[in-house]
């Protein structure tokens, strides 16, 4: 397992991504192609920035990426890619939709790799992760375009099925993804929703 982690760590360094978590997005993208050229992408919990950079490269110069994080970190932009607007904010804040809408009213893709600060208690961490994933789904109702896609991390456990059921009500196709680059011992999985059924 350590070997696999070293492999992704070195690969990220070589490909100039600030975190190896980029491969948890890349693997799903290579299989399901839910990010396209020209896309507008909202990346929630974006720091240190690997997913936003990957999405910007995939969307290309015609696209746009808005990255949101509690941490005021990386603010890079790269050549021949979509512009990335880095927003320092909390997705649970009451005014988050207004703050994002000041930049753009809706998006073709919403990504979330948000992780709660771990407490050491598995049950508490899983519930917090689920609450954040539910919050992402709420924001999706306001900010995702009809037929858009969403890819969200959540820790598997109690109430996970109920969360997936609520995603199924909002998307035409739903897949549960466990990327190879995710530690096998980690309870994280990713829920991919394609074809948003906007009410
Ligand atoms: C695993 S990291 C994301 C890594 C990122 N996808 C990348 O590839 O570089 C999770 C991020 O979620 C952020 N986060 C946690 N709770 C948040 C919240 N309520 N609002 C915004 N960001 C949050 C953390 O600050 C952290 O930077």
Structure write-up:
This protein is an alpha/beta fold and 199 residues long. Helix content is 37%, strand content 26%. The protein contains six helices and seven strands. It has helices spanning 2-14, 22-32, 50-59, 96-101, 122-143, 160-170; strands at residues 40-44, 64-69, 83-88, 107-112, 144-155, 171-177, 188-196. It has a seven-stranded mixed beta sheet, with helices on both faces. Strand 4 (107-112), helix 5 (122-143) and strand 5 form a beta-alpha-beta unit. The protein binds S-adenosylmethionine. S-adenosylmethionine is lined by residues 18-19, 21-22, 45-51, 68-71, 90-92, 113-115.
Low-pLDDT residue spans: none
Shape: globular
Number of strands: 7
- In the sheet with the most strands, the strands line up as 3-2-1-4-5-7-6
* CATH homologous superfamily identity: Vaccinia Virus protein VP39
CATH architecture: 3-Layer(aba) Sandwich
Beta content: 25-35%
User: Biggest β-sheet: count, sense, barrel?
Assistant: 7 strands, mixed
| Order of helical and strand elements | HHEHEEHEHEHEE
- According to CATH, the fold-level topology is Rossmann fold
Compute the CA-based radius of gyration.
16 Å
Q: Count of DSSP helices?
A: 6
Arithmetic mean pLDDT: 95
Multimeric state of these chains?
A: single chain
Distinct small-molecule ligands in the complex: S-adenosylmethionine
Helicity, as a percent range: 25-40%
CATH class: Alpha Beta
What's the N-to-C terminus distance? 44 Å
Helix-and-strand structural type: alpha/beta
Give the tally of structural domains: 1
